Amino acid sequence: MSEHAEEFLIASENKAFDHEHRRIINYNIGKYDAAVNKGLSKLVNLDNAKKKGHVIKWRVMENLDKYLPEFESNFQRRGGKVIWANDAEEANREILNIIQKAGAKTVVKSKSMVTEEIQLNEFLEANHIESLETDLGEYIVQLLGQRPYHIVTPAMHLSKEDIAKLFNEKFGTPIDATPEQLTAKARELLRDKYVQADVGITGANFLLADTGSIAVTENEGNARLSISFPKIHIAVVGIEKIIPSIADLDLFWPMLSTHGTGQNLTVYNTILSGPRQANESDGPDEMYVVLLDNGRTNLLAQKDQRQGLYCIRCGACLNACPVYKNIGGHTYETTYSGPIGSIITPHLQGMEEFKHLSYASSLCGKCTEVCPVKIDIHKMLLLNRRDAVKQQVVTKKEEWAWAIWKKGMLSRKMMDFFSGKTKNFFLRTFFKKTWGHLREMPVVADKSFSKEWAERAETDKSV
Fold first, then answer.
1. With 314 labelled, which of 142, 262, 420, 444 sits at a CA distance of 20 to 30 A?
2. What is the mean pLDDT of residues 57-67?
3. Does the structure show a pLDDT above 90 at 110?
4. 296: closest CA among 64, 54, 52?
5. Buried b (16+ CB within 10 A) or exposed e, 417-432
């Protein structure tokens, strides 16, 4: 068992019995469920929209070598610059080069999971560059020194009392400050930072191949401010975020917003096609798009599982997952948690270290049901388990245990050879510590069904 797997088992057990965590998450996800149900009810044909989104993303992944150069060509035509990064180290190095070349010292960032993936904040801090998160949730977890808890709502695990206490300790606000007062304080602290920052860094929800643009969707306006004031804008985007046309946004924007927050459309939706043009009054002087691979082509090469790259990062599968709702986002110790993270992380960061995430599922299928682009998530988890065995990254103990179990289950004769007492002995001896410390162990009947059936048949004959 890998070190990550051992830590996961310990952390998940602790978190599952944390009653305060359960209360906060149930409350926040309950509000999400109510909003999303209302939002989805306004879509005329939801299933058809999901199928359409699935087909578009399928076409993109099958033709990624066509759409990415098309985006690059169109973006460069408007004065933008594209940087291809094979991994996190290369992406960070290229970003640092841009910042140092400009003599910059301060960076404002809007919410971006891909910059969390490459650990950009930590890298910039190590190189004496101030990097400040401007999304309220991201700002809160940055103050706490934590990773985002959720793909969409980074501070979902915190109550308003937790945040009021944090702001009281950091900024001296009243301990009983309301959410409105806390938001006003954050706005006051961040306003000057936008004006003073040398560089703005964002992610992108979509890359538009036909116009060479990036599409950014948000609710707070902090991304627009991070783009508008600094003279340099750097967008860091995974290569899977591309879609063929600007016309496809009429599908993907509403599907992202309804599944992400229950809104018909998020408050701010911005399309950026390069740096400020000669006839434009605002915008950055320089704009870069860093196209990040970082293991994505490994997943693309897996024909059965490349569906994982269709994800539009709405977070719906996390909110639906009974495992995520019990163990929380930080337990996964990955950038992308929940069902979608359990699919893609073993391919992005290594099957040997992260195969355990594919087993952290009840396989109830709710994640597949709610996915806005119809990713067959629970099937992908099973395929990851299959690959872990094929790649022989399971322990010999596991191999032998499952080989014996399979042999026994395929043979009625072997199943009947052991009595119920023997089976109960094995359960108590070998599974009490792993299964039984949190639940009552099942009791196997003294006689198997087939033996009972045979005996009854004999009795019927004699009668």
1. 142
2. 97
3. yes
4. 64
5. eeeeeebbeebeeeee
In the chain, the domains with their CATH numbers are 43-137+200-294 (3.40.50.10420), 313-390 (no CATH), 397-462 (no CATH)
**pLDDT surpasses 90 at 438:** no
User: How many Å is the maximal CA-CA distance in the chain?
Assistant: 101
What one-letter code names the amino acid at 75? Answer: F
Q: What is the mean pLDDT of residues 415-434?
A: 80
Q: Which residues pair with 290 in a beta bridge?
A: 83, 236
Number of Cα atoms under 13 Å in the Cβ half of residue 39: 21
pLDDT at 233 over 90: yes
Report how far apart, in Å, the C-alpha atoms of 88 and of each of 152, 318, 359 are: 22, 25, 27
- Give whole-number Cα distances, 110 to 93, 223, 229, 287, in Å: 20, 5, 13, 15
| Contact assessment for residue 338 and residue 28, using Cβ atoms and an 8 Å cutoff | no
At residue 172, does pLDDT exceed 70? yes
- Average pLDDT, stretch 42-46? 92
Tally the residues of the chain: 463
Please report, to the nearest 10 degrees, the dihedral formed by the alpha carbons of residues 39, 40, 42, 47 taken in order: 160
What one-letter code names the amino acid at 345?
A: T
Q: What is the pLDDT of residue 327?
A: 95
Confidence of residue 145 (pLDDT cuts 50, 70, 90): very high
How many helices (H) and strands (E) in the chain?
23, 10
Mean pLDDT for all residues in the chain: 93
- Amino acid identity of residue 440, one-letter, is E
**Cα–Cα distance for residue pair 154/329, rounded to 1 Å:** 9
H or E stretch covering 165:
helix 160-171
Phi and psi at residue 242, to the nearest 5°: -75, 145
Token pair 């059936």 is found at 453
DSSP state of 299: H
Is residue 460 predicted with pLDDT exceeding 80? no
Average pLDDT over residues 85-103: 97
The residue-averaged pLDDT of 111-133 equals: 96
Angle between helices 160-171 and 136-144 (to 10 degrees): 60
- Of residues 354 and 455, more confidently modeled: 354
Phi-psi region of 212 (alpha: psi -120 to 50; beta: other; left: phi over 0): left
CA 233, distance to chain mean position in Å, is 25
Burial 325-353 (b: 16+ CB within 10 A, else e): bbbbbbbbebbbbbbbbbbbbbbbbebee
What residues contact 45, with CB distance under 8 A and at least 6 apart? none
Band (pLDDT 50/70/90 cuts) for residue 463 is low
What is the token pair recorded at 197? 């920052």
